[in-house]
Amino acid sequence: MSGIDRYARLQDLGLPVVTTSDAAVAWGASLAVAARVLSRLTSSGLVVKISHGLWQIGAQMVDPAFVLPALTNPYPSYISGWTALSRYDMIEQIPRGIFAVSLGRTKRVDTSVGQFQVHHLHPQLFGGFTDETGIRAGFARPEKALFDVVYLFSVRQGKVTLPELELPKDFDMRELQRWVSAIPSIRLKTLTTQSLDHLVAGAKLQGA
Which of 73, 68, 71 is nearest to 83 (CA)? Predict the structure, then answer.
C-alpha cells in the first residue's frame, strides 16, 4: 500500500485527529509500522504530529476541541475555565493554554496546538457544557466555566481573583447556584461561595 493510499484510508475515517492505534487498524498494520508510516507522512505535510501517539489529518491547525477527547480517553472531558471565559468575552486575558475538565486524572499535555491543562473534577460536578459530538469536546456554558475555575482554584488556594470580570446579560445566577449546591464538601462549598459572591459583586455587565 502506497503512502497516498494509506493517507486516503485515514481520510476515510472522517476524523480530524487519529491515534497511532486508529491508523494501525485502518491499515491492518502493527503499531510499530503505523508509527513509522505516520512519521513519514509528516514530512510531506499530509499529517502533523500533535503529541505522542496523536496525529492530525491535514496541515491546517485543528480545533483543540477535537484533540481533547483523544487526550482524556476513555474519560469524558470538556473545555472550560479560562478558555471558555475568554470565548464568551468574560475576561480580557488571553489564556496561554487550553483549560479542560475531565473525570480522568489531572495532567498537562504539550501539543502542537497548545498546552492542555486537564483538571480532574468530582463526578457530581461534571457537566454544564454544550456543543459536544462524538469526536468533539463540548464547551462549558458561561455559568459552569466560572464555577469550574473558581471551584478548582478554591481547592488549591482558597481564594480566587478575576480582574475585570464581565458577565453576559443572560448569565443565569440560579444555574451557578445549582452547581455550588452540588459540591459534596462543606468546606469547599463555603470557599467557593465566598469567592463567587465576591467576583459576581464586582463584575460588570457586558454592554453596560
Answer: 68
The number of helix segments (H) and strand segments (E) in the chain equals: 8, 11
Give me the mean pLDDT over the 14-23 stretch: 94
CA terminus-to-terminus distance, the chain: 61
Grid cell locating 39: 512519521
C-alpha span between 24 and 35 (Å, rounded)? 8
pLDDT band of 134, cuts 50, 70, 90: confident
Distance CA 101, CA 80 (A): 7
Separation CA 19–CA 155 (nearest Å): 33
Q: State the greatest distance between any 2 C-alpha atoms of the chain, in Å, as a whole number.
A: 63
Q: Round to whole Å and give the CA distance between 182 and 194.
A: 15
Q: Provide the pLDDT for residue 208.
A: 65
| β-bridge mates for residue 160, sequence order | none
Position 158 scores a pLDDT of 63
DSSP code, position 123: G
